[in-house]
């Protein structure tokens, strides 16, 4: 079971990072940013078993790696961060595929799948023309995260996981819009709030999921 103490500690560390954003950049900012995800990683690594432990731990570990790369200034930091998160979404997507469909929701929700596809299409239309030499990796990333989200809905996973993957789509779309299309006020806060909510709800949703059905 997902301990309430983890929720409180996660919320506390996330708020600390959000409160520190006006002071960007500061020494070891990457560690403060990645700390909430590290807490989720420790929770999954210590409490889950089998492939649940492996895939969730890997997804969160690569997410932390992406957080670190996106927080440092180096010539290839964005590309490395993008690659790390792409692997994280591959881990999530493959893991979701291994889970049995929710017995109360075996019929795929085609309207929701089409909605995700439509959202990805609009995001691609708005963002990709502005990505220049990064068009291929950004497009690849968009495909992977969209497929990951569609798998969660297709498999009928619980509403917390579904909410988490939707927050991820929103967070990454906001990040790409701010980075490639046009910077907007409050972007850092909106991106990080939706990102932290995404990781939290996916992780909590997996703990809430009846894992014995996925055996």
H/E series, N to C? HHHHHHHH
Give the uncertain stretches in residue-range form. Answer: none
Number of strands: 0
Structural class: mainly alpha
Mean residue pLDDT:
93
Number of helices: 8
Shape: globular
Counted up, domains total 1
Keywords: Membrane, Transmembrane, Transmembrane helix
Subcellular location: Membrane
Membrane topology: Multi-pass membrane protein
Organism: Thalassotalea eurytherma
Task: Give your account of this protein's structure.
This protein is mainly alpha-helical. It has one domain. It contains eight helices and no strands. It has helices at 4-20, 29-47, 50-71, 77-98, 110-127, 135-154, 159-181, 187-208. Belongs to the TMEM86 family. This is Membrane protein. It is found in: Membrane. InterPro entries: TMEM86B-like (IPR012506). It holds the Pfam family YhhN.
Précis, in short:
The chain has 215 residues and is an all-alpha fold.
Write the layout of secondary structure elements.
Blueprint: H1 4-20, H2 29-47, H3 50-71, H4 77-98, H5 110-127, H6 135-154, H7 159-181, H8 187-208
Descriptors for this entry?
single chain; mainly alpha; 215 residues; 8 helices
């Amino acid at each position: 079971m997902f301990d309430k103490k983890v929720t409180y500690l996660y919320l506390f560390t996330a708020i600390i990072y959000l409160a520190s954003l006006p002071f960007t950049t500061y020494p070891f900012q990457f560690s403060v940013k990645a700390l909430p995800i590290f807490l989720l990683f420790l929770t999954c690594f210590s409490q889950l078993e089998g492939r649940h432990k492996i895939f969730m731990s890997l997804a969160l570990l690569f997410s932390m790696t992406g957080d670190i790369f996106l927080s440092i200034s180096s010539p290839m930091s964005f590309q490395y961060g993008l690659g790390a998160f792409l692997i994280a979404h591959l881990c999530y997507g493959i893991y979701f595929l291994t889970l049995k469909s929710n017995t109360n929701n075996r019929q795929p929700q085609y309207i929701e799948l089409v909605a995700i596809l439509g959202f990805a299409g609009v995001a691609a239309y708005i963002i990709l023309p502005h990505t220049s030499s990064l068009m291929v990796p950004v497009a690849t990333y968009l495909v992977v995260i969209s497929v990951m989200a569609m798998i969660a809905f297709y498999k009928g996973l619980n509403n917390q996981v579904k909410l988490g993957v939707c927050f991820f789509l929103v967070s990454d779309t906001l990040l790409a819009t701010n980075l490639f299309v046009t910077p907007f006020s409050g972007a850092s806060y909106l991106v990080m709030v939706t990102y932290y909510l995404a990781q939290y709800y996916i992780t909590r949703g997996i703990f809430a999921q009846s894992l014995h059905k996925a055996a």
